[in-house]
Amino acid sequence: MNHFQYHLGQLHAEAVPLSRIAKTVGTPFYCYSTATLKHHYKVFTSALAGLDAHVHYAMKANANIAVVRTLANLGAGADVVSEGELRLALAAGMPARRIVFSGVGKTQSELTLALREGILQINVESVPELKALNEIAMALGVRAPVSLRVNPDIDAATHVKITTGRKENKFGIEWTHAHAVFHMAAALPGIDVVGVAVHIGSQITELEPFRLAFLRVRDLVLMLRADGMTIRHIDLGGGLGIPYDPDMAEPPSPIAYAEVIRSTLADLGCTLLLEPGRLIVGNAGVLVTKVIYVKEGATRTFVIVDAAMNDLVRPAMYDAYHEIIPVIEPAAGANRSLMDVVGPVCESGDTFAQQRPLPPITAGDLVAVGSAGAYGAAMASSYNARPLVPEVLVRGDAFAVVRRRPSYEEMLALEVLPDWLAGAR
User: Fold this and answer.
1) Confidence tier at 50 by pLDDT (50, 70, 90)
2) 111 has a pLDDT exceeding 70
3) For burial by CB atoms within 10 Å, which of 2, 41, 220, 236 has the most?
4) How big is the CA angle at 98 (ends 217 and 381), to the nearest 5 degrees?
5) How far apart (Å, rounded) are the C-alpha atoms in residues 192 and 147?
6) What are phi and psi of 183, to 5 degrees?
7) DSSP assignment of 362-384, as one string?
8) 99-101/121-124 β-pairing
9) Which pTM value belongs to this model?
10) CA distances in angstroms from 8 to 11, 368, 394, listed in the order given
């Protein structure tokens, strides 16, 4: 469900016409719906009712400070993967004790900051990281709360670039070595082993990979407890998929996902940490872009828009599907023609849709790219010296720019000529 619907012939975000935002901030821009963020969060947390479970929003999906503040106000924690995300979470008002630090390549400065801030736990992914964290904790005179992330060697049946739980992936501690590494960690004076963590991938549309991974985690917890270790937390990661293509089957519901958790882990008496990202914010956002030209090629019609792959890279990187709809509602029964929707970047990969059946579109029209709230603005770049696009948050009939578009002067101010070129012409 989302709150982007046609009303009186125009696509609205809640009660705000997207065309009004376009007139104010220009195009392209990202638009997020507060009502959708809240709805998705509440649906997910309601599914977990009766479990000792806590939601830690995966900020890598969308780290906009207004989005994070909205979720923090609902009681969410955060899952961060960098110092920048940690600082954003804190700036958004997220209590440190609701923050989990994940990621395979945390630096010493990042680990130091996490310990100084007193976050809930650090998900350690390798023996070298474990040893480095022990030394940092001892130097600070604290014990680091650690969950060891294990790699269960489970195929998540998702895109190869976003699967993270197979033995050939870079993430986590290999399954057959996990028992020994837990005992190593327990013997380190600067480490407080609090739990087990697992994460097998993103945009997962089947429940069986989750069930298999959770059963392996269950076996490990029971084995460690039999050895006398206290395991208090189980971090289940995230990964539950969302519907991108309205013609495809719906992914499993949060209720069905929660039932898998109940059947595999609920009786262990552990606090469960869950890290949804895309599930919360994906369908809470759209990318609005203006048609520059409609070009008739030799065999195809190209709709050239002012957004590009640097603004939304998922189609180029993952061949991802995003629904594309006009901001002005098409007439009932309008004929549809096959079109390629492309951006202005000088790469053939700068394509949002190929041979997509669309209603009549002309230069100057606005179109909305759906399900763009996750891994849209978060993965954007200034490739081709294109400014990052604004982000807008809507609540009811009000909207606010929550990240503005930088000027070209601001972008140029980041560049510095060396002394030997400063006076050269």
Assistant:
1) very high
2) yes
3) 236
4) 90
5) 9
6) -70, -35
7) -TT-EEEESS-SSSSGGG---GG
8) parallel
9) 0.94
10) 8, 17, 19
Q: Tokens 């065999």 appear where?
A: 299
Largest CA distance in the chain: 74
Residue 371 and residue 282 in contact, taking contact as beta carbons nearer than 8 Å: yes
409: which 2 tokens? 């002067």
Angle between helices 178-186 and 127-140 (to 10 degrees): 10
CATH homologous superfamily of 4-31+282-413 equals: Lyase, Ornithine Decarboxylase; Chain A, domain 1 (2.40.37.10)
How far lies 4's CA from each of 279, 293, 357, 364, in Å?
16, 25, 20, 21
Q: Where are the domains of the chain?
A: 4-31+282-413, 34-280
Distance (Å, whole) CA 114 – CA 191: 14
Catalytic residue annotation: 346
The tens digit of pLDDT for each residue in 351-407 reads: 999 999 999 999 999 999 999 999 999 999 999 999 999 999 999 999 999 999 999
